[in-house]
Amino acid sequence: MSSYEARFKVWRGDVEGGGLEDFGVEVNDGEVVLDIIHRIQATQAPDLAVRWNCKAGKCGSCSAEINGRPRLMCMTRMSVFTREETITVTPLRTFPVIRDLVTDVGFNYQKAREVPSFVPPPGLGPGEYRMFQEDVDRSQEFRKCIECFLCQDTCHVVRDHEENKTAFAGPRFLMRVAELDMHPLDAAAEDGLDRKRTAQDEHGLGYCNITKCCTEVCPEGIKITDNALIPMKERAVDRKYDPLVWLGSKIRRRSS
Ligand code: SF4
Ligand code: SF4
Ligand code: FES
């Protein structure tokens, strides 16, 4: 086993302010950035605050920015960096810092609450739902989300514009609206809830200019922009400007 000493800069501070602190720390074969943060905690800075749970890329809690890029610390191998490189670890920039690498991601829970949940089909009880695999194939990809909020952190609509946070749900929750809109059994429309309209009017779909930065950082490889946001934009526009779609929705509403 070979080991070497790496140079790390880790952001330390709290809501009042802070800065980067330098550390020289041992690295062994096969380690990930979270191992090194834990070693710093164990040997040099016992009060260094860091959030993590699974160390397997599944709980979504160890999100941070490594050399400026939003990543999971537990899934970032030290071998992707050269031994000479200084590795900088900072908290997610889009959310308020609590302490050191821990941020307050409450914005995301608030946005989650604003998306109306699945509406069960009338007349069917739990256990009676039947769907064809081909009808759920498209939205199943979105269920892989681990809620790490890296996509929310990287999206420039809120990253540099705090003022947009009220009107914009962010890629993760626009994807949730798309998932429900594609759900073969969701009866929201029958209940008078037009998910395409709410995506546009209430969750800020129009702010997204399909830069695909969210897709690039998703550790689950979900094609957020291509498979959720763009199709939903197309459907929202169809609904608004296509006279046949508009007429169809009027007729359906009148006959129901
Ligand atoms: S594609 Fe849209 S949601 Fe994703 S980062 Fe770009 S602007 Fe944000
Ligand atoms: S869509 Fe991807 S990047 Fe966004 S919260 Fe889910 S897993 Fe994380
Ligand atoms: S510790 Fe769970 S995703 Fe990193």
Any descriptors?
Ubiquitin-like (UB roll); iron-sulfur; five-stranded mixed beta sheet; 4Fe-4S; elongated; 16% strand; Fumarate Reductase Iron-sulfur Protein, Chain B, domain 2; two-stranded antiparallel sheet; 2 domains; 10 helices; 4 iron, 4 sulfur cluster binding; 256 residues; binds FE2/S2 (inorganic) cluster; electron transfer activity; alpha+beta; single chain; 2Fe-2S; 7 strands; binds iron/sulfur cluster
Overall description:
With 256 residues, the protein is of the alpha+beta class. The chain contains ten helices and seven strands. Helices cover 36% and strands 16% of the residues. The protein is elongated and about 65 Å long. The N and C termini lie far apart (70 Å). Bound molecules: iron/sulfur cluster (2 copies) and FE2/S2 (inorganic) cluster. The site of one iron/sulfur cluster has 14 residues, from helix 4. Belongs to the succinate dehydrogenase/fumarate reductase iron-sulfur protein family. Residues 6-93 form the 2Fe-2S ferredoxin-type domain.
